Amino acid sequence: MEIIMIVLAGILVSASVYLILSRSLLRIIIGTSILTHAVNLLLLTMGGLKGGAIPIYDKTIKQYVDPIPQALILTAIVISFAITAFFLVLAFRSYKELGTDNLDEMRGVPDDE
Amino acid sequence: MMSNILVLPIVIPAIFAIILIFIGKKPIIKRMVAFFGAILTALSAGYNLFYIMQHGIQFLELGSWPVPYSITLTVDHLAAAFVFTTSLLMIFIILYSYQSITVERERYYYYASVLFMLCGLNGAFSTGDIFNLFVFFEVFLMSSYVLMIIGGTKIQLQESIKYILVNVISSSFFVMAVAMLYSVTGSLNMADISVKLSQLNNHSIITIVAILFIFVFATKAGMFPLYFWMPGAYYAPPIPILTMFGALLTKVGVYALMRTYSLFFRTETVETILLVLAMLTIISGVIGALAYRDMKKIIIYNIMIAVGVIIAGVSVLTVDGMLGAIYYVFHDILIKAALFMLVGIIIHITGQTAYDRAGGLIKQYPLLGWTFFIAALSLAGIPPLSGFFGKYYIVKALLAEGHVISAVIILLSSLAVLYSVIKIFMHVFWGEEEIQIQPKPYKKMLIASIIVTLLAVGFGFYADALFPIFHEAALTLTEPSHYTQILEVK
After folding, report:
1. Any stretches that span the bilayer, and where are they (chain A) (predicted)?
2. Chains A, B: CB contacts under 8 A, how many?
């Protein structure tokens, strides 16, 4: 099971790297969110994927899955959600101001200090 | 055992930042509240430092759960000194902002972002938990995104995109590295991880995780192959924000590298990688500092040189090397802030960023001129001033370990640093007057930058008095059992 998950995370990372290296800003943002998906999957996998009940206490259950990676992922998801939201608004604003979403054209603004 | 006072430098700025969000549009009140909040933070940080000097390393189990199971704040001498310096510097940056940040920017939560950043920085310095370190990294990174974009000029939009992209990627790799570390050790507490890794006897997976961590923190600190975002991104925002970034943000990367390297990854391979990267960082920083005519760019490349020097000191893992790195990092926080502030005043007065477009300022602004001169000499490390002790110890440690070429590179880099900054001084303050200068208010900016320069000079003159703290800090870094003792106290 871990092997499959690791391969899946690897595929996601390679897809995100490909997207991040493209020119369009929206593709780059899609790439970063895929990267965070891959990382969260990896975090889940690294905690171990052995069978067990969900980590809600019950007297009859002997074995639970590891609760720590789930808490970590929950934190990481919220953080990456906030950053993605900020990044998307930034992309929108810069499209309005700079008039392009091509990262190659985003250079050489004269300094306005 | 110290009660909850350790948490104050993190909580006070957060509370004041929340208050600042609710204060409406009166810039005067906002300034006062932010200033007061920064002073309170610095006082509590100073008290913590004083307490730790007398009683040794302090830790706090949040929620009173025993050590490996709770998030702990572990504050040793190094962390306490970092927290104190950061909080102190933030007071002067806020004072400096009064006249250099425009009212529109102040209206859109500038001071709230500054205080959230202070909260994140203090948290990152004093945490003892690796995932909590990630969270505090995100706290100050998120504030830094806001600060970098605030105002919304074209260059800021354009450079923020690159800055945020680089940091999102490196944060993802941080989570990946934490995941791998968790699967190897099964723990998140840094002291606990350190003990468990030392029982593993240099398994090769540790080297891989170490390289992942170096990748993450080197991106934050602006080290050799990963510095490409820094010159552009730091060029965009206004000067007080740039001061904060240049003086503090890169140093958190350096601090995290010091902490993780000394606690987790004490292998030969990692040492070689760090030393080589540090040398390449110095060389590329020197090339940049000599190549540009733009004052901001020159100082930005000087940050890279300093980061290289500090990492070179850290990499040898001896008491002397660490001592030098610690002296140099605090010197550099103060002097970089002073230089950015002074360059900011020059740009504010003349309206030019290239040094050869201004001239002859010394007649009208003698105080500014001589302060800049002292700051420049201090940056290069002329003996009675503050840059000397750090470099002395670093070079001594490198020579003791037989890294002669690295020591020579560091000494030569001082020459390049001096040349690059004195070049600004000679062009801007001497030479002929070319442009008409309209008088602009700059008193508060000058006061703040003179105080920071004096702090840097005082740091040089009283280096002797600070030796006990820094020596303890260096011992904790070279001998992890000092740090991991909190596990036994239970």
Report:
1. 6-26, 38-57, 69-92
2. 104
Q: What is the ipTM of this complex?
A: 0.93
Tell me the domain boundaries of chain B: 2-489
Domain ranges for chain A, please list them: 2-52+63-105
Is this structure's pTM higher than 0.90? yes
Residue of A nearest to B232 (CA): A107
Which residue does chain A place closest to B294, by CA atoms? A111
Cβ within 8 Å, pair B165-A20? yes
Shortest Cα–Cα distance, A57 to chain B (Å): 18
Query: A111 contacts in B (CB within 8 Å)?
Result: 155, 235, 353
- Topology classification of domain A2-52+63-105: Helix Hairpins (1.10.287)
Is residue A83 within 8 angstroms of chain B, CB to CB?
yes
Question: What is residue B486's predicted lDDT score, i.e. its pLDDT?
Answer: 75
Interface of B with A (CB under 8 A): 131, 134-135, 138, 142, 145, 149, 152-155, 157-158, 160-161, 164-165, 168-169, 171-173, 175-176, 178-180, 182-183, 188, 235, 238, 296, 347, 351, 353
Q: How far apart are the first and last CA of chain A?
A: 56
pLDDT digits (tens, 9 = 90+) for B37-47: 999 999 999 99
